[in-house]
From TrEMBL:
Its EC number is 2.3.1.-. The keyword Transferase applies. InterPro entries: Hexapep, Trans_hexapeptide_repeat, Trimer_LpxA-like_sf. GO terms for molecular function: acyltransferase activity. Signal peptide: none annotated. Belongs to the transferase hexapeptide repeat family. The keyword Acyltransferase applies. This is Acetyltransferase.
Length: 150
């Protein structure tokens, strides 16, 4: 049996960053005052904006970037290989990258399957976001739909 240990590897982070072990984060950048809860995985080429909180059990696939002061609730999943051809896509270069603007709030248990969520958007708990969110508001459901503008 081969056992790989979860680790913090090649992370660029300021002294004002807080992370809770155990977690598995590598080849990513965490800006000032970022908080990362336990049992989180953040993969390579992610950049987490200043003041952003990532709560426990969330998964950030490669190439997720967030703006400032975002809140990623517990057990949120970001996915970048969307299986569009009906199978795993072996080419990471063609996986989507995902960008969140500033002050985005993602409710617990949500899944993000799209490339862009604008600043100020709120995603309800358990939502599945399948389309870009281009204007601030509260979105929820599967697929996530606008509940109301804010
Ligand atoms: C999305 C949310 C912000 C909406 O709050 P709200 O504006 O007060 O909405 P309401 O409770 O008035 O609900 C409005 C409608 O949306 C529905 N709704 C609310 N939240 C929903 C959700 N997460 N998914 C699907 N539908 C939802 C309600 O059932 C209601 O439907 P109806 O009009 O058919 O009765 C809130 O319900 C939510 O999910 N917050 C996330 C909380 C969270 O994850 N916190 C993590 C902290 S650790």
């Amino acid at each position: 049996m081969k056992i790989l240990k979860s680790s913090i590897r090649n992370v660029i982070a300021s002294e004002k960053v807080t992370v809770c072990e155990p977690l598995n984060i590598y080849e990513c950048t965490l800006h000032d005052d970022v908080f990362v809860g336990p049992f989180v995985e953040i993969q390579r080429h992610c950049v987490i904006g200043a003041g952003t909180r990532i709560q426990s059990h969330s998964f950030l696939c490669e190439k997720v970037t967030t703006g400032k002061n975002c809140f990623i609730g517990h057990n949120v999943t970001f996915a970048n290989d969307l299986f569009r051809s009906g199978k795993l896509n072996p080419d990471p270069e063609s996986w989507i990258s995902i960008h969140l603007g500033d002050n985005v709030i993602v409710g617990s248990g949500s899944t993000i399957l799209t490339e862009f969520i604008c600043s100020g958007a709120v995603i309800g708990a358990g939502s599945v976001v399948t389309k870009d969110i281009l204007k601030p508001g509260i979105y929820a459901g599967n697929p996530a739909r606008l509940l109301r503008e804010i």
